[in-house]
Design goal:
Helix content: under 10%
Number of strands: 11
Shape: globular
Largest sheet: 7 strands, mixed
Strand content: over 45%
Structural class: mainly beta
Radius of gyration: 13 Å
Length: 117
């Protein structure tokens, strides 16, 4: 069973930066596509960024050029570096893991990011 533990959320002013971290437990890290999704108040959950085991990345259009996803296979960690934060980035951010073999998806409990104006 996969377990994901996010950390690094908090309150930041617009224009600032935060780095989210996600620890992966329970299975073989290199067999999963890792991602970050978010859900803002009153909105649907959306995929923000994802990274394959080979470190190919993809981003939602609104965060391109501002957010960077990375992974550390030695530590079984995934990171989301968020720069030039905007108030509309305020959301609960979730770490996700998708199995390459079964497509089963796992979610962390989320970490709240609040961007103030």
């Amino acid at each position: 069973q996969v377990q994901l533990a996010e950390s690094g959320g908090g309150l930041v002013q617009a224009g600032g930066s935060l780095r989210l971290s996600c620890a992966f437990y329970g299975r073989t890290f290199s067999e999963f596509i890792m991602g970050w999704s978010r859900q803002a108040p009153g909105k649907e959950r959306e995929l923000v960024a994802r990274i394959t085991p080979g470190s190919s990345t993809a981003y939602e259009d609104s965060v391109k050029g501002r957010f960077t996803v990375s992974r550390d296979h030695a530590r079984n960690m995934v990171y989301l570096q968020m720069n030039s934060l905007k108030t509309e980035d305020t959301a609960v951010y979730y770490c996700t893991a998708t199995s390459l073999s079964s497509s089963m998806e796992y979610w962390g409990e989320g970490t709240l990011v609040t961007v103030s104006s």
